[in-house]
Amino acid sequence: xxxxxxxxxxxxxxxxxxxxxxxxxxxxxxxxxxxxxxxxxxxxxxxxxxxxxxxxxxxxxxxxxxxxxxxxxxxxxxxxxxxxxxxxxxxxxxxxxxxxxxxxxxxxxxxxxxxx
Length: 116
Hints:
The chain has no helices and 11 strands. The chain has 116 residues and is mainly β. The strands form 2 sheets. Strands 2, 4, 5, 6, 9, 10 and 11 form a 7-stranded mixed sheet that branches. Strands 1-3-8-7 form a 4-stranded antiparallel sheet, with no helix packed on it. It is globular, with a radius of gyration of 13 Å. It starts with a strand and ends with a strand. 28% of the residues are buried.
């Protein structure tokens, strides 16, 4: 059975850091682009960033560039989202997504709250 499980969310003060993990089971992420999305309260889901299957290339939404970093360890079947200099507007549920043309999988999300 396929699962993507995000972890590492929580409450952090503005300017703080968090590192999210997304662990896959039931399939290998090595042939999938891995993406992070988020959905803030009352807003549409937005793309945070993507990392290619081999981890060679990454791309980020403009508001995350320079603050967020996506990495992956295909041997551990896990992808990460390092978030620095967090702002209250980063408060959202963060989801990981595994994508390739023939299939896609989603995790259940992890809540990140940035507040003093």
